[in-house]
Design goal:
Layout lengths: L1 H11 L10 H4 L1 E2 L2 H10 L5 E6 L6 H14 L5 E6 H5 L21 E6 L19 E4 L6 H11 L5 E3 L2 H9 L6 E6 L7 H9 L5 E6 L2 H6 L7 E8 L4 E6 L6 H8 L25 E5 L14 E8 L9 H5 L2 H10 L3 E9 L6 H9 L8 E5 L10 E2 L6 H11 L5 E3 L3 H11 L3 E7 L6 H12 L2 H4 L2 E7 L3 H6 L7 E9 L4 E6 L8 H22 L2 E3 L3 H8 L4 E7 L4 H17 L7 E6 L4 H6 L9 E6 L4 E4 L6 H12 L9 E2 L11 H6 L5
Parallel strand pairs: 1-3, 2-3, 6-8, 7-8, 11-13, 12-13, 16-18, 17-18, 21-23, 22-23
Antiparallel strand pairs: 2-4, 4-5, 7-9, 9-10, 12-14, 14-15, 17-19, 19-20, 22-24, 24-25, 25-26
Protein name: Thioredoxin
Organism: Tetrahymena thermophila (strain SB210)
InterPro entries: Thioredoxin-like_sf (IPR036249)
């Protein structure tokens, strides 16, 4: 009976072996080379590999379990499914992966875990040192999702130093290889949370991690009241000391990643405030040697400009920096003008007589002389290896700006008296800032300011929080209407205030300094405030009484409600994580609240909407103004939840098929925590 139920669910959900166009999304692999490439690209993470085909009794069930596992362990473990039927069709692949031989179908599915080595896995295969190869672990337990998840948590890698005393901590703080530190405080025999293990993989080589097995005296010294607790140490360069911050967010990976990013790469990040000033031109630039030509585009950054320095085998790579590049005559003007636009230098050494096909095509297509070094500038947002500005001598700043400007995509709205109203309204309705540039195109400096504005609008971190609009040659009358004294003028429209819909604005007040650094810091400040506002506005709360429910889902509010089963602790945590992740997907859209309810504790509420507490979880949309609701009929997996929620976020959607309650939702006040302690009356 159990197998029939699983197979039936499998058929209803339409989970079949994917076609080629789906492989990238769901982890299906069809060759050993694909697997090798995946393992080399993500060598910091534990990898989970299922080996099976379609010709075995349990293979469809195996695929179903794999997909559930992959969804629940996203961000923690990299998951791959080797489709042996397609792999075995490629004769040249067979010698590499005998496990896919149809003769072995009686033992499918085979499960292997690849645990990262102490050092990076070398994808070239040239270094066969055992310490650089992933450890292959054969899984021999029952092939069930919960057992697989528990096993994964137990073997997940931890890239952290173990310390026990104050002297040990100070020794770690003195290590300035990675200046910022993250320390997990636990008691002697306490387990390390698996989300922390995953975070050490996400930020390996970017943050210095420690696990502190502390006694009570050490916990008291660092004012830690409970364990496990994460304490971050940010290095303040001016004071040559550390600033401490306790992580108080949800104990899950998506939220923690946002927090950890502040400490990533060992670079001090200043708190943004109203007196925040641009950094000086004395900056730290990342210098990276590239060994594989094909890897170059991976280093292009949607928020930073990149310099690619192509050098012949006659050029030394020693001491290459912005300063040394500036001393080369043909590069000096560019470095002087654009050093604030760039954060990274990539260095690639090529050999004229040993070019690979793709290298030769690149040089020929772009007419680059193989006998010379070349400095190429890739502006922010560029992903195409052939879309660059070649730095060369005898170009004026205006000519350089013109060439680079033409490479970047136009991300701005062109505004006029009518369009600006729609532009502002649309930005605010999607919970974004509307950053607007008013400019006189006859001004000699206009082309440079338009360039700066476009460069900023192409940075993903700014596009995520703001729209960009340009109003050219505004009339004197309309200039007076917008209270603009002089051009150029930059203002950001933030949101409406009060019932009369007055606009709150943030005027750029550092004119006439319209430099890249000054405008970058202006936008950074606004986006920082906006992100903080979004985080605080996303309400995810448990509710167990009417007053609490009305706070989030009453008074005409729209909300999404998840009915979860606390009695199944592990499953509950995974489902709550899914619900929280779902809420974060809609931060930039209209305001709705997110509430979860213990369905076992509030059985009567479930009965009122004809639901059983035996079939949880449920996802429900509820409009407290109309008392209308709709229940998600599909299974509680993220893609289904996302599709269900999107229907109610769309303005075009008429929300057909809603049911209506006789009156508003009424929740009896119960001590659900006490019921949980009693382990429920099942």
């Amino acid at each position: 009976m159990g197998i029939k139920i699983v197979v039936l669910a499998f058929l209803i959900l339409g989970l079949v072996f994917p076609q080629d166009q789906q492989k990238k999304d769901n982890g299906i692999l069809t060759s050993f080379l694909q697997l090798k490439e995946k393992l080399s690209q993500s060598s910091k993470f534990l990898a989970f590999v299922v080996i099976a085909g379609k010709s075995c009794e349990n293979c469809e069930k195996a695929l179903f379990i794999f997909q559930q596992y992959k969804m629940n362990m996203e961000g923690y473990v990299n998951s791959y499914f080797m489709d042996c039927d397609q792999m075995w069709d490629q004769v040249f692949e067979r010698e590499h992966f005998a496990a896919c031989d149809p003769k072995n179908s009686n033992i499918w599915p085979i499960v292997q875990f690849f645990k990262p080595p102490a050092e990076d896995y070398d994808p070239s295969g040239d270094d066969t040192s055992s310490k650089r190869q992933p450890e292959v672990i054969q899984y021999k337990d029952v092939f069930q999702e919960n057992r697989l998840i528990d096993y994964s948590k137990a073997i997940m890698p931890l890239f952290a130093y173990e310390v026990r005393t104050e002297q040990d901590i100070q020794k770690q703080l003195e290590n300035k290889t990675l200046q910022n530190k993250i320390m997990l405080f636990i008691k002697e025999n306490e387990e390390i949370p698996y989300y922390f293990k995953a975070l050490t993989s996400h930020f390996r080589y970017k943050i210095h991690f420690c696990v502190v097995k502390a006694d009570q005296e050490l916990l008291d010294q660092y004012k830690i009241e409970d364990t496990p607790t994460i304490l971050a140490f940010r290095f303040i360069r001016q004071k040559q000391s550390y600033k401490q911050e306790i992580y108080v967010g949800p104990k899950r990976i998506q939220s923690a990643i946002t927090f950890f990013k502040k400490y990533s790469s060992g670079v001090e990040k200043k708190d943004i405030n109203l007196t925040y000033k641009p950094k000086t031109e004395s900056r730290k630039y990342n210098i990276t040697m590239i060994h594989q030509f094909k890897d170059i585009p991976q280093y292009f950054n949607s928020d930073q400009g990149v310099l690619l320095y192509l050098i012949t085998d006659q050029t030394s790579t020693d001491d290459i920096s912005f300063e040394t590049l500036q001393q080369i005559h043909k590069y000096s003007s560019f470095i002087e003008y654009f050093k604030t636009y760039v954060d990274s230098i990539l260095i690639y050494k090529y050999y004229q007589n040993q070019l690979e096909v793709e290298q030769e095509e690149f040089f020929n297509l772009n007419k680059l002389n193989l006998q010379e070094d070349h400095l190429l500038f890739y502006p922010t947002g560029i992903k195409n290896l052939n879309s660059f500005f070649k730095v060369r001598a005898k170009l004026s700043k205006k000519q350089m700006i013109s060439e680079i400007f033409s490479l970047m995509e136009n991300k701005e709205d062109l505004l006029d008296e009518e369009a600006i109203q729609h532009y502002i309204k649309h930005a605010i309705s999607t919970n974004r800032i509307a950053t607007s540039l008013f400019i006189d195109t006859k001004d000699k400096q206009s082309s440079e300011l338009l360039f700066v504005f476009r460069y900023l609008s192409n940075q993903k971190k700014f596009r995520d929080c703001s729209s960009f609009g340009v109003y050219k040659d505004i009339t004197k009358e309309y200039q007076k209407h917008w209270q603009i004294d002089n051009l150029p003028f930059i203002v950001s429209f933030l949101h409406n205030i009060g019932d009369n819909n007055q606009l709150q604005t943030a005027v750029y007040d550092s004119a006439p300094d319209f430099s890249y650094l000054a405008l970058h810091n202006y936008l950074s400040q606004l986006c920082f405030s906006k992100e903080k506002e979004k985080i605080e506005s996303v309400l995810i709360a448990e509710t167990n009484n009417q007053q609490n429910f009305d706070k989030y889902c009453g008074n005409g509010e729209e909300c999404f409600i998840a009915f979860l089963d606390y009695s199944r602790e592990n499953k509950f945590k995974i489902e709550l994580d899914l619900f929280k992740t779902l809420s974060e997907k809609f931060r930039n859209q209209k305001a709705v609240n997110w509430v979860y309810i213990d369905g076992r504790c509030h059985k009567q509420l479930l009965k009122r909407i004809n639901l059983s507490d035996q079939d949880m979880p449920y996802l429900l949309y509820y409009n407290s103004k109309s008392w209308k609701y709709k229940i998600m009929e599909e299974s509680f997996v993220f893609q289904n939840m996302l599709g269900f929620t999107q229907k109610f976020m769309s303005k075009k959607n008429k929300k057909a098929g809603l049911l209506k309650l006789q009156d508003a939702i009424d929740i009896d006040e119960k001590d659900c925590e006490l019921q949980r302690q009693k382990k429920y009356d099942l």
